[in-house]
Amino acid sequence: MKKIENLRTDYKRDQLNESSLASCPIEQFKLWFNEVLDVIIEPTAMVLSTYSQNKGVSSRVVLLKELQQDGFIFYTNYNSLKSEQIKLNPCVSLLFFWPDFQRQIRINGLVQKISHESSVNYFKKRPRKSQISAWASSQSSVIKDRFVLEALFHDFEKKFKNKTISKPPYWGGYKVVPNSIEFWQGRESRMHDRFLYTKHQNNKWIINRLSP
Ligand SMILES: Cc1cc2nc3c(=O)[nH]c(=O)nc-3n(C[C@H](O)[C@H](O)[C@H](O)COP(=O)(O)O)c2cc1C
User: Fold this and answer.
1) Which is the most buried residue in 2, 46, 120, 145, by most CB within 10 A?
2) Is the CB of 67 within 6 Å of ligand 1?
3) Confidence of residue 1 (pLDDT cuts 50, 70, 90)
4) Distances (CA, A) of 90 to 29, 33, 37, 167, 177
5) What SS3 state is found at 186?
6) In this structure, is the dihedral angle defined by the CA atoms of residues 94, 17, 19 and 197, taken in order, positive or negative?
7) pLDDT tens-digit readout, 20-61
8) How many CB atoms neighbour CB 52 within 10 A?
9) Which of these, 185, 16, 23, 198, lies nearest to 96 by C-alpha position?
10) Ligand 1, atom nearest to 80 Cα
11) 190: annotated active-site residue
């Protein structure tokens, strides 16, 4: 096996310049996202980190399901660990890492539940089996074995046979409203480009270049 300490990639693919940056980070996100969209796998996968005093820091991947002018939307179980932490502390971070493009995007912000109506609308668009699994899964709780989970799935399959599947009351969306977003483009010899957008009181975005 190769020594981990000797694994090294030099980032030469691209660069990010002041002159090419959009004035709004959501627009800049769209520019980058559109470039990676059809090229990489799981471009919508993002690491969501939450913190609460009782559980500490916790990170996991969730999928971006909608980008709005003021935030990033994902869906989950409102009884999960992440939701429990969000209830106690709405300050979260999101992180996208697109290695093929040698890019990282870090987002800090406040998270809020989206409307019940919006969650219902999205739930309707999910594949039927994903709708059933939302009913079968008490996300983040301990289960005895796989059999228990599959039995629950089959029970709900039977229950909803030939019926429209309603959204479980404990399932829905969150929107992360950013107060800062950093775009990182890997460069040669670790001389990376980093630009941090910070939202100021008048809702204007200030852009600063950061040292790599
Ligand atoms: C590629 C990928 C996509 C995922 N998408 C979601 C998602 O959109 N929503 C979600 O609740 N969990 C998603 N998960 C599962 C979470 O990472 C995590 O296991 C789950 O939400 C429970 O997290 P928690 O116990 O910290 O609340 C995804 C995992 C992976 C690896």
Assistant:
1) 46
2) no
3) confident
4) 22, 25, 29, 24, 10
5) coil
6) positive
7) 999 999 999 999 999 999 999 999 999 999 999 999 999 999
8) 16
9) 185
10) 27
11) yes
**DSSP one-letter code for 41:** S
User: pLDDT at position 2, please?
Assistant: 87
Ligand 1 pocket, residue 58 CB under 6 Å: yes
Provide the pLDDT for residue 146: 98
pLDDT digits 0-9 by tens, 145-190: 999 999 999 999 999 999 999 999 999 999 999 999 999 999 999 9
Structure tokens that stand for 206 in this block: 């200030």
Cβ atoms of 192 and 185 within 8 Å: the answer is yes
Amino acid at 44: T
What is the C-alpha separation between 17 and 77, in angstroms, rounded? Answer: 40
For each of the domains in the chain, give its residue range(s) and CATH number, in order of start: 9-126+170-210 (2.30.110.10)
- Any ligand 1 atom below 6 A from CB of 47: no
> Tokens at residue 199, please?
């939202």
Q: Which amino acid is at 157?
A: E
